[in-house]
């Protein structure tokens, strides 16, 4: 049994869980994982037993419990410093980009929730399209400044934070620039991500309300 256990939501839907899962994988820190099926009787009690927030993800470190995806990523970065850009200025930009994703882009979260099995070309609300355009502009700027293939050239926590939203561009056929499309393809061809996606396609748990968004 590993000293680390990551409690996550369903692979198909839980964007917040995907982020630290990817970071722990890239850090090569051995960890166990436990999936908590969302929106079923008793699921909230399970979450509240792990943290006062009652949300996933939660990382158990020996007998301590660490909630919040960014806090878990920072925990991993203390053990494996190369998870952030080495240059101090680039790290500051990466933190800014992560914080923007961590707290912003409410429309794309609401109108295009992560749903890896979803494929649709339905017309999306304008505020969602505005968020998508802003995200692409941010990606294009960072990719051009740091010469890709990742936002800061080498893979970092910033890429983990934008991976769930990258899947939304595919699931909901959101418009994107050529450079952003190449970046999305790079993220979604990652071996660790492909393992997560395989598990998402294999699980049979569904969230009907999420599946019904913008049908």
Automatic annotation (TrEMBL):
The keyword Transmembrane does not apply. GO terms for molecular function: glutathione transferase activity; maleylacetoacetate isomerase activity. Keywords: Transferase. InterPro entries: Glutathione-S-Trfase_C_sf, Glutathione_S-Trfase_N, Thioredoxin-like_sf. It comes from the Bacteria. GO terms for biological process: glutathione metabolic process; L-phenylalanine catabolic process. This is Glutathione S-transferase. Residues 4-84 form the GST N-terminal domain. Signal peptide: none annotated.
